Amino acid sequence: MAFLTAKGEQLYGYHPVQGAVYPFSLRDGLQMGAAIPLDLFDMSVSDGVMTLPYQPHQFLVFEERFYLLFHQDAEGGMDGRLLSFDLLGLDRKDINIPLVRQLAPYQEGQLLCLAEKEAGIVGPGQLHVFLPKDGSLTALGRTGQQLKAFGAGLAYDPDSQDVYYQSGSQLFVWHAEGKDSLVAHLGSEFMLPGSGMVLIRPGLLAFGHGLGISIRQTKPPQLDTRELVIRGGYPDRQHELAASLMPDAHIRFIETTYQSTALQKALILGDDSFDIYQLGAQDINTKSLMEKGYALPLQGEVISRHMARLHPVLCDMGTLNGKTMLLPVDLRLMPLYINQGLFEELGLRIPRSLEELLAFITDYPQDAEVPLFEEPPTQDELLNLASTLWYARSKRMGVPLRFDEPAFLSVLEALGATPNFPQRDLLQDSRAALFPYGNELNFSYWSSYRAFSRQMEPLFLSFLADEEPLVIGTLTLLAISPHSHQQLTALRYLENKLLSMDDLHCASMYLQAPKGIKNPGFDQLIKAGKPT
């Protein structure tokens, strides 16, 4: 179930794949009733094999009817729609309220509507009162804050007659005179599609989101007056979990595409506009950064335990004179991918070094029935691979990095002789190629493709034949700026970030990884499309 709603003690859940509503009760355990199918034929998308309904942004039961709200597709593929059905799913009505973002029960027999003024234009929202009985719509006023692109929550408190609405990651109470008051920080998890809010009692709201349910107190507000600013990165799931553990803090990202030169300049000039910064270990001299004092020492039980479990190479990237200053939080391995079963079927030897790979590419017939690549690499991509492996080899051997060595020049000559393979139409079936296309070894990504029979196996190359393979990856580090005015809050965020690490992160970074990683998502995916 993606959405839950209630009418008295009767609960209803909306199934996003089946496009049906299920009544259920929690008395004497979970008691689920028969599916109530909804007429969503014109609100569906098909790939020729499977037809799925569009995903609504809100599901609500009110005055003996179900309401499904669909936001306008940002790419223009679907107009915003508001549909209502009777509780048997038989009587469908299309309701014309332009650009609605969220609905909430209002005064007796009325719905409160929060709408955009113009489609896709960031600006104040419009509040309307909708009377389902006769379809009338009355303007109530406009919000004092802009409606951000993500998230739209709405709730009404009948005791105080307060209207609460969401603006990005913040919750405001609406005042008719336009001077709306900030009453709660929500965190990025509440901007996920499907977010919603329910008034538990005056001054206390519950929020449903992709991570579960959170509670916010609005009377009196519990607020940290200053926001925590993170430079670099974006609000991924690990951040969402970390932010949900500190509801008093307002967390904001700047410069999601960060550059090391701009970061160095900001640190040198004493820029205090951010508290935490993120960087890639491959993008900057981390030792120099720490030696110059551009990262604060990090202390605490959670951080010490994390550093002790890391692989020594990763730990060393963030440590100076025994002090942790840069915190490793993510490692993405970057292998090639091979279709090992197809190699074996054709009796071909798998290349284990860059030397062997370049020779294999040169000798393989371009018109062979079995394509070599799903996505042929360019000369620049092969050169980047060669440079990366050569750098990693010099680090492993502890020798100075020089690009005039005979071994490197020999590989460059072989690289220049490799042909350009044409793009082949594989009908989206990469099992037909010896080298299927793949991203970095993100464990869930890799497992998903293997589960769908793409036969993708990771391959780490050595530079020269008969050498040990070189494991290539990108390491992400977090640090607290010495110019931060919120060092304790920043440290608390870093600790929460570590507490939010899942088994997949641990498997790639820790010496003692989990023995087995359960992924119930695959079973859920299989069951999702089957009627109960």
Word description of this protein:
- This protein is α+β, with helices and mostly antiparallel strands.
- Among the domains are: 3-225, 6 Propeller (Neuraminidase); 336-471, D-Maltodextrin-Binding Protein, domain 2, CATH 3.40.190.
- It is built from 13 helices and 31 strands.
- Strands 1, 2, 3, 4 and 5 form a 5-stranded antiparallel beta sheet that branches.
- A hairpin with a 4-residue loop joins strand 2 (10-15) and strand 3.
- The longest helix has 19 residues, at 379-397.
- The protein is globular and about 85 Å long.
Keywords:
532 residues, alpha+beta, Neuraminidase, D-Maltodextrin-Binding Protein, domain 2, five-stranded antiparallel sheet, five-stranded mixed sheet, 23% helix
